[in-house]
Structures
1.
Amino acid sequence: MTRINFSLNHVGIYVIDIDRMTDFYTSFFGFIVTDERTDVNPIRFMTMSPDEHHQLLLASGRAPDSPSTVAQISFLLDDFAQLRAVHDRAQADPRITKIWTLDHGNSWTVYFRDPEDNIIETYVHTPWHVSQPYGTPIDFSLSDTEIFAATQKAVLNNPSYMPAGDFREHLVERLGQ
């Protein structure tokens, strides 16, 4: 069987107020609008990469009283300093009403809800792997060094622990690559 290499490159969400959501995703994350349809059911295509026409699609049509069907929209960050900056920025943004953090052992994560209650995940990888689900809150009043040490201590005591590189090697084998 020929292996097809899929790459997930964008997500589309139905929104209640496309202008409010466009403002949030452009001002908080730095997306730009690349194209839009402005008829009876407006759509906005947005990106943060010159290599992708769109990474986020906002489509009008979600009823105001309907719950979000998005489990989460996840953004990988380069390092812990960026995660701390997102945490601080989310706390200062009045459009964001719920923020929570989790040390997943294999990642440090800041979660929050966008203005229409969709869950946003921002995260950075750790050098470790533990079986999921796993999570303890992150205390951002601690220094980066203290958070790193606490995670390391916890994962080394977890029976499912392995270095992240070893886990990736297992995935490569399982994916037949």
2.
Amino acid sequence: MHERLREALRVTRQAVADGSSAESATRDLLLFCHGFCTALTAHHEGEDRDLFPAIAEQYPELRETLRYLRQDHSMIAHLLGGLQAAVTRAASPAELHRHLEGVAAIMESHFRYEERQLLTVLETLALDADPDVVLGPL
């Protein structure tokens, strides 16, 4: 899922970089951002709702790590809100680029930390749930 979200962000950033005008970039970004922002939000909501409680139950020593990851989810949601507001008001490509860079930096840092801390756990976690519901659709 992280790789698919990384790719969606790359495509979104490319849409802004390729825009020959603010109007063109904003139109492309509306399409890409809606899908990307929705997918990333659903991914984090599923983790908070289903995955992290299951990990905390089976691996109580990871509760502090999960708390940090939830804080990241909140920060990323705030950044996505700023990006969506910029897209809605047809911000300049330069402003859209700044928003995307902020989302990319925090998202990548978050994903890498999560992967380092939880990858082994996820390989052994007994979770009785649909992965598309827990990890979000993309």
